């Protein structure tokens, strides 16, 4: 019996390591603007999770797969992946660990973003609502590196509104976010970046520049390495022809955007 148990336990341990390794690899590839390679790594993470037969691991791996599929342009497919994995993980979730709730909630939020990117407003709102219900179960935490909780749901409402092209609603949602409650510096930087995007879209260049500087203070590497930030700074420089947002020029230099 012992040898039989050992023979099944070893592959399971290998698959668990593979899930985490491929997930990290996919995340790094996405940050480095290589979504095609991230897609491959994410699919391997999901395959390893399914071999384990662990719905929580499947949900975690499916979250990064949803992100990668959306990043390569397969937006509707990314929504289907998120919904399928969420349905699998949601069965009996109230009786499972807070880790499962956090992973499920983070998957729902990623699915909401994917639905917004696919211009599916109703599905995005439904997934945000489901995520809000899940967030009522555990307290805000960084379980399984998700930083999931009510405040993260509020943060995603800003992002989803922006993705749907509603900058006014994004600003309204941003006013509801208490940045100090976001436990992870990267999340705070994302919030300030989204606020800057919304402010810029509303023609408030000086305040948008201040928001970007706040993002840089929280997580300099997030601001200086993300293509979306460089594009935003370039657009803001073009709009700020009179040079009213003087701090924008020094930020552009640090980020590597030609002034």
Structure description:
The chain is an all-alpha fold. It contains 13 helices and no strands. It has helices at 2-31, 35-52, 55-71, 75-90, 98-117, 121-135, 150-163, 167-174, 185-201, 205-218, 220-225, 227-239, 247-255. Helix 3 runs parallel beside helix 5 (98-117), helix 5 (98-117) runs antiparallel to helix 6 and helix 6 (121-135) runs antiparallel to helix 7. The longest helix is centred in the N-terminal third of the chain and has 30 residues, at 2-31. The protein is globular and about 65 Å long.
In brief, what are we looking at here?
By secondary structure, this protein is mainly α.
Write out the CATH superfamily name of the domain at 11-143. Answer: Tetratricopeptide repeat domain
Judged by helices, strands and strand pairing, the structural class is: mainly alpha
Q: What is the number of beta strands?
A: 0
Shape: globular
Give the mean pLDDT: 86
Which CATH architecture of the domain at 11-143?
A: Alpha Horseshoe
Biggest sheet architecture: none
- State the end-to-end distance: 70 Å
Beta-strand proportion? under 5%
Number of helices, where a helix is a run of at least 4 consecutive DSSP H or I residues: 13
Q: Radius of gyration from the CA trace?
A: 20 Å
Write the element-wise H/E pattern from the N-terminal end onward: HHHHHHHHHHHHH
- Helix proportion: over 70%
Looking at CATH, which topology of the domain at 11-143 would you report?
Serine Threonine Protein Phosphatase 5, Tetratricopeptide repeat
State the name of the first-level CATH class of the domain at 11-143: Mainly Alpha
Low-pLDDT segments, ≥5 res: none
